[in-house]
Amino acid sequence: MFDLIVIGAGPGGYVAAIRAAQLGLKVACVEGRGSLGGTCLNVGCIPSKALLTSSGKYAELSHLAAHGVVVEGASLDLGAMMARKDKVVGDLTKGIAFLFKKNGVELIEGWATIPAAGQVKVGDTIHQTKNILIATGSEPTPLPGVEIDEADVLSSTGALALDAVPEQLVVIGAGVIGLELGQVWARLGAKVTVIEYLDRILPGIDGEIAKLAQRALSKRGLKFQLGRAVKAVEAGGNSLSLTVERVGKDTVDTIEADKVLVAIGRRPVTRGLGLEALGVAVNERGFIAVDNSFQSSVPGIYAIGDCVPGPMLAHKAEEDGVACVEGLAGLKGHVDYDKVPGVVYTDPEVASVGATEEALKEAGIDYISGKFAFMANSRARSTGETDGAVKVLASPDGVLLGAHICGAHGGDLIAELVLAMAKGATLTDVAASCHAHPSMAEAVKEACLDALGRAIHA
Ligand code: NAI
């Protein structure tokens, strides 16, 4: 009899399993994929970051002349780039197997179903357990009229494994996946057009920062068609033909592409577990409804991560998992969802935490704001990474409510502001902390000073 069986070994599930084992629970984790780490490690965050880094190095070569570095005869070995990505993934997934052994988590390989509360079935074996934690993650949302074959019409999985650089890549959806993978292939030589339904990119990100990101990404070769909905993708001869409608108008355009990436969001994976028969409540979009302790409508069955409502982010799933099992072990687990950072790993990076300006306006909350452009930051000037800005939002008495960055290393810079917000820090707290010179982090300090009406370098 286990204390806990976790279904799914993605970042939510494997972290929960390890933490539960650390707390003395007898734990098993079931995974059917054949390798650990879930979408994030196998076909998501990690391989995309490997390719973003590799393609970034290739793209950098064309800018080195400005630094006085002349590179001749550079060429692309896509096979080697992909092999490196696969090795990064392989090493990390093996690392989880090691962590399971070290912490005494039993790995059960196969696809799980839940015949009853307290039972997890894998193959022909029914395992008894006091608690079940569903951490089955998410999968790409399909687009009606468009069939993903992972050869020409791709999801993120296919777009991480192309064996040649497409000439024309059309990306449907200017969200996180579309922009990250769009930029990978643009850097490697593809002509990339991103088609987005809304009249802006990166919904959910502060509008002003999203505009800066769009401008910077356009400068780096991505073409955007906003306010457009893809209605159909058809194969024709050597290329694909997309039927694209202008939202709110009767106009229909046709666009040709040799590859199409569908990146219009992800949906929870909750089918096939037997939840309906068990009476586990799911909402209209398929997310499992849970209470504050992550328990579903059926006692003893818990759920975390992408398959419950909330941002679909690996680190949020990890936080969910730890809080959930700490609760099971009698501790007080807690996640502060208002302070979960999000990072888009494009160049420039886009990073955010807390409220956007639009959300504050909509909620009628009084705020002050400050901004500092990297153009005025001496470190950014010396490295040549001057695109973007740091923006902070705070209550009139200076308590930070949100922070948004478009710029190089934004994903690292945001950590200071996450900590500041977690500790209820004010603009003055951040501005009064000494920031090394010259550093990109000085832009964070200056944005806070700007909100206080006393920026030095702006
Ligand atoms: P997303 O929700 O970020 O963006 C999807 C975009 O597609 C939206 O802008 C939406 O308006 C647009 N769209 C929807 N239907 C459309 C249509 N018919 N035609 C044109 N545009 C359409 O979804 P995405 O990029 O697929 O990412 C899925 C999830 O994975 C997100 O929740 C994201 O947070 C997560 N993720 C996070 C990463 C990170 O943290 N760096 C990296 C990759 C994914």
Helix and strand arrangement:
Elements: E1 2-7, H1 11-22, E2 27-31, H2 38-43, H3 45-61, H4 78-103, E3 106-109, E4 112-116, E5 119-122, E6 125-134, E7 138-140, E8 153-154, H5 156-159, E9 168-172, H6 176-187, E10 191-195, H7 207-219, E11 223-225, E12 228-236, E13 239-246, E14 252-257, E15 259-262, E16 266-268, H8 275-278, E17 301-303, H9 314-328, E18 342-344, E19 349-354, H10 357-362, E20 368-373, H11 378-383, E21 389-394, E22 400-407, H12 410-422, H13 427-431, H14 442-451
Helix pairs in contact: 1-4, 1-9, 3-4, 3-6
The structure holds 1,4-dihydronicotinamide adenine dinucleotide.
Residues 45, 143, 172-178, 180, 195-198, 203, 229-230, 263-266, 312-313, 342-345 line the site of 1,4-dihydronicotinamide adenine dinucleotide.
Give a written overview of the molecule.
- With 458 residues, the chain is of the alpha/beta class.
- The chain folds into three domains: 2-140 and 267-335, FAD/NAD(P)-binding domain, CATH 3.50.50; 153-264, 3-Layer(bba) Sandwich (FAD/NAD(P)-binding domain); 341-451, 2-Layer Sandwich (Enolase-like, domain 1).
- Helices cover 33% and strands 25% of the residues.
- It has helices at 11-22, 38-43, 45-61, 78-103, 156-159, 176-187, 207-219, 275-278, 314-328, 357-362, 378-383, 410-422, 427-431, 442-451, and strands at 2-7, 27-31, 106-109, 112-116, 119-122, 125-134, 138-140, 153-154, 168-172, 191-195, 223-225, 228-236, 239-246, 252-257, 259-262, 266-268, 301-303, 342-344, 349-354, 368-373, 389-394, 400-407.
- The strands form five sheets. Strands 1, 2, 3, 4, 5, 6 and 17 form a seven-stranded mixed β-sheet that branches. A five-stranded parallel β-sheet has the order 8-15-9-10-11.
- Helix 6 (176-187) links the parallel strand 9 and strand 10.
- Helix 1 (11-22) packs parallel to helix 4 (78-103) and helix 1 runs parallel beside helix 9 (314-328).
- The longest helix is centred in the N-terminal third of the chain and has 26 residues, at 78-103.
- The chain is globular and about 65 Å long.
- The model has no long low-confidence stretch (mean pLDDT 97).
- 1,4-dihydronicotinamide adenine dinucleotide binds next to helix 6, strand 12 and strand 18.
